[in-house]
C-alpha cells in the first residue's frame, strides 16, 4: 500500500512504448505475455528474460521522483530485447551489438515518440561525445571486437543504426528490419545477416559503410556530427558558447533557446545568473541549485524557492547549500524540509545529518535522530540508501557499534557495489586506527 503512489509514475508510458515498438519494428510482440518485476538490490538497472523484465526497485518512484530518475529508458530498452536478443540472438560476443545496439536504438526511438525530436538528438549528441572521449583515451575498438566496452556495444551500436537509416532511408531500413526478424526468428545471427537484408531492401552496397561505422577502431565522429547538424536544436546548442564569445550570452539566457543551451550558459558563466534565470524550467533550476554553491544575498529568496521544486535532487542540493550559506536560518530550512523522504531517502538522510550538526536544533530529539540515521545502514534498506547513510556517519566520525556491524556484514553483500564500498571503508577505518 505504501508504494501505491509509485505505480503510475514507475510504469508511465509503458503501453505507449509497447504499441510504438510493435508498429515501428513492424513485427508483433513475439510472446504471449509480458511481465515486469521490481527486485530489491538488483545487480543491474534491468535485465530482460523472454516475456519478463526484472528491474531494480530503486526505479519505483513517485511523481516527484520521476523528474529525477525514471524507468522509461530501461523499460523501453528491456522491452526491445524481446525482439532483439530473445527472438533473434547474436551467435557470439563478436555480434553482441545486434542485441545491445538495437535495444538502445529502439529505446531511444520510443523515447522520441514520448519526449520529442530534440530529446532524441540530444541523447545522440551525448552518445557521440562519450564515444569521442573514449577514442581520445585510446580505448576505442571495432564494434565487432568481443572485448569492446559497453559504451561501444550500446551507444556506438545505436549510432550505427541511426546512421544506416539516414543513409538508406526509413522505408528501406524498416523493410530490412522486418525481413531480418521474419527470416531469423528463433535463430542465431551474425552482423552480415542483418547488413545483407539492408543491402537487399535498399539496393545499396554497404561495404564502405560497414568499414567505417562497424569495422573501424574509432567512432566516425565527423560523420556523426554532420548527421547531428540536421537538427536545428543541435545547431543552436553549438552556436551558444560563452567561452568563445560571451557578448550575447546574457541575452541568450533570457531568450527562447533550449534548456540545454541555457544550462550550458549557466555552467560556463554563472555570473550571468539573475532572478529572471530562476523562472526557467525544472531542468534548468536543477542546474542552478548545483552551480550556485555560494549564494549571493540578492538571490537568496529565489534560491530558497528551490526547496519546493518538484525534484528531490534539487531539494537536497538546495537544502545543503542554504544550510551552509545562511547559518542563521538553518532551523527554518530544516523545519521546511522535515518529513520529506526523497528518492532513495536522499533528502531524509541529508536532513538527519544536518539536524545532528545544527546547534540548538531539536536538542531533546538528537539521540532519536542519530539512531534513525544509524538504522538506515541496516539490511532493511537498499544498498544505495545504506551507502549514503554510511557516508554521512563516517564523515561525522559517528559510526557506532551497530553501524560498524552493518558495515562488516555489507562486505559479503551480493551486490558488488555494496561489498566493494564496505571493504574500502573498513580498510580506511583500520588504517586510521
Structure in words:
- It is a single chain.
- The protein is mainly α and 433 residues long.
- It folds into 2 domains: 4-233, Neutral Protease Domain 2 (Neutral Protease, domain 2), CATH 1.10.390.10; 282-432, Leucine-rich Repeat Variant (Alpha Horseshoe), CATH 1.25.10.
- The protein has 22 helices and 5 strands.
- It has a 3-stranded mixed sheet, covered by helices on one side. It has a two-stranded parallel sheet with strand order 4-5.
- Strand 2 (46-49) and strand 3 (52-56) form a beta hairpin.
- Helix 4 (97-115) packs across helix 6.
- The two termini are 45 Å apart.
End-to-end separation: 45 Å
**Any low-confidence stretches, pLDDT <50, length ≥5?**
none
Shape: globular
CATH class of the largest domain: Mainly Alpha
Q: Tell me, rounded to a whole number, the average pLDDT.
A: 97
Q: Helix fraction?
A: 55-70%
Number of domains: 2
Strand content: under 5%
The CATH architecture designation of the largest domain is Orthogonal Bundle
